[in-house]
Specification:
With 252 residues, the protein is α/β, with parallel strands linked by helices. The protein has a single domain, classed as Glycerol-3-phosphate (1)-acyltransferase. 37% of the residues lie in helices and 14% in strands. Strands 1-7-6-2-5-3-4 form a seven-stranded mixed beta sheet, with helices on both faces. β3, α3 and β4 form a beta-alpha-beta unit. α1 crosses α2 and α5 crosses α7. The longest helix has 25 residues. It starts with 16 loop residues before the first helix and ends in an 8-residue tail after the last helix.
Length: 252
């Protein structure tokens, strides 16, 4: 039997009770075991369609942003996470949309894109990682690596603003000892970036200009965190293998 992971969901508050419960637990977990520093440059809209786009340096960003972003998010996640029955049940109740990140299942991705656009039309907030997976160093959008083209396209066709976010510090959580030392985590939520008018969505130059603006905002947000909190190179993203090799003692 083929499962429809991306079926249309009711946007009423009742359908988000499970999400809000998980969001509360995630927020509590990170507050207890980490020192979370949240910077909001502009309060995100509480209603209406929005696309929340974040860098992706570990497996912890969905739970972290789900706990600290000011509204519920319908995440887009890789299709592999839906293979296990328990994971499928959990993600379905969290309104997660599956996507084949390798682009081999064209029919599935086409259906997923329609589902994303439908939820945006319903006024939801959709969370995506425009890097297409966990990235650090030169492969990261924090270092101006190119994004997957889907973010620009979704914003153009839905006319939903993109709210950029940058997360630092979660890559340290791969080492269990660091959970006991309350490592710092930094989140910055940027200003909403609105796409050009719908009439220009077929204008290649307009799309390119908007994509360049999006590409430049993530390094700028990282720089804002770097300067505001006087971070060091050690605070910048590293691979899981690099982090697992070192336990860091954090000041109180």
């Amino acid at each position: 039997m083929k499962h429809d992971f991306n079926e249309r969901c009711d946007s009423s508050s009742q359908t988000y009770q499970y999400y809000h419960c998980c969001s509360f637990l995630a927020r509590l977990l990170f507050r207890v075991f980490c020192r979370v520093h949240l910077v909001i440059l502009e309060t995100p809209p509480k209603e209406g369609p929005s696309i929340i786009a974040s860098n992706h340096i570990s497996h912890f960003e969905p739970a972290l942003l789900g706990g600290f972003f000011p509204r519920a998010l319908d995440w887009v996640a890789m299709e592999e996470l839906f293979q296990h029955p328990l994971g499928r049940w959990l993600l379905k109740h969290l309104h997660v949309i599956s996507m084949d990140r390798f682009g081999k299942n064209f029919a599935h991705n086409r259906h997923s894109l329609r589902s994303i656009l439908q939820r945006l039309r319903l006024g939801r907030a959709v969370g995506i990682f425009p890097e297409g997976g966990i990235r650090s160093g030169e492969e990261s959008i924090l270092e101006k690596a190119p994004m997957k083209p889907g973010l620009t396209m979704l914003s153009f066709f839905s006319q939903a603003p993109v709210i950029p976010c940058v997360v630092l510090g979660t890559d340290r959580l791969y080492l269990f000892k660091n959970w006991l030392r309350r490592p710092p985590i930094w989140i910055i939520i940027g200003k909403a970036m609105r796409p050009p008018p719908k009439e220009e969505r077929n204008n290649a130059q307009a799309r390119l200009n908007f994509e360049e603006k999006l590409n430049s905002v993530f390094p700028a947000l990282q720089k804002e965190l770097y300067e505001r909190f006087q971070l060091t190179p050690e605070d910048l993203p590293k691979t899981a293998a690099e982090r697992r090799g070192t336990s860091i003692k954090y000041p109180g």
